[in-house]
Amino acid sequence: MTFNATTVAAAAAHAAQTTTQQLYANIDLTKLSWLEQMWAAWYIWIDNPIIATGLMSFLLHEFVYFGRSIPWIIIDSIPYFRQWKLQPNKVPTAQEQWECTKMVLFSHFTIELPAIWLFHPMAENFGMNTWQVPFPSWTTMVPQIAIFFVFEDMFHYFAHQALHYGPLYKHIHKIHHKYSAPFGLAAEYAHPAEVFILGTGTIAGPVLYCWYTRNLHIFTVYIWITLRLFQAIDAHSGYDFPWSLQHIIPFWSGAEHHDFHHMAFTNNFSTSFRWCDRIFGTDNKYREYRARISAQKAAMKNKSKSERDEAERKLIAEIEAEGQRAEAIAEGIMPASKTVKAQ
Ligand SMILES: [Zn+2]
Ligand SMILES: [Zn+2]
């Protein structure tokens, strides 16, 4: 090789590149999509993959969580939408929403933020692609995300039931049940231990999948986390619209399913899908309640709207009172034998 001015210049240019830039040395970035170029630019700009992945993960969570909650805050402030509210007499006040926001932000900044810098080393350790571009194709990502949905739903079903066991409920899960009529922002209103336990269901799916297959990009994980956040926030929204997803996909849980869990303190332990509760019979009270609501609506077809609303309110109050008794039993405040159930 002739050692001339050109090779000196090339060597100097190479030395001037940061370590992160060198990662992309053999990739023609101009041939990539805009998003992939931005992705590489982010890693080059931060110039530290641990910080780049950690910060992006944290920002994604904040933007999606609060961004998705804002429409629900607006909907709660418009009386027109009350007709689709599952517990119409329980609309969260601005004060309640603000208290909830403060608690969620506190846990994001004190628990999630310090831990999130472990995300990149953990991902690399399991062979997950992070800074790499291009992204996988849609045909690779879609089945992976479907697997994560199913895994998380089953994990959550059993872990959530465990959290209803007396001591675990009293010391951990009770915080999440503060709201018997939940709202979007309340999705992550929970004890840090609960965030950790139930968050495992969201993260363990991708980690285990990656460990077995060595074929997963963190971009796919971000899409999964975004969809999972949408699912959690929407399930807590307290609204069941005619166009809600559960009316299009019958096995999707949605707010109509999870709202009952908060109202009745029992049944409906899963997140995304209805099948676990159906298979294991933990949706019996929920289905009985839906049947009673439908029967009541049919029987009161000719009555005035206020009479129908009053009857619905009564039924909701009855279920909620039963839920409060069940909660007291779980906490050991009330012995199980003292309950009088009208069944
Ligand atoms: Zn629960
Ligand atoms: Zn909940």
UniProtKB/TrEMBL annotation:
GO cellular component labels: membrane
Domain of life, per lineage: Eukaryota
Domain (Fatty acid hydroxylase) ranges: 146-282
Subcellular location: Membrane
An example molecular function term from Gene Ontology annotations: oxidoreductase activity
One of the GO biological process terms: lipid biosynthetic process
Cross-referenced InterPro entries: Fatty_acid_hydroxylase, Sterol_Desaturase_Related
Keyword set, alphabetical order: Membrane, Transmembrane, Transmembrane helix
Name of the featured protein: Fatty acid hydroxylase domain-containing protein
Species the sequence originates in: Suillus luteus UH-Slu-Lm8-n1
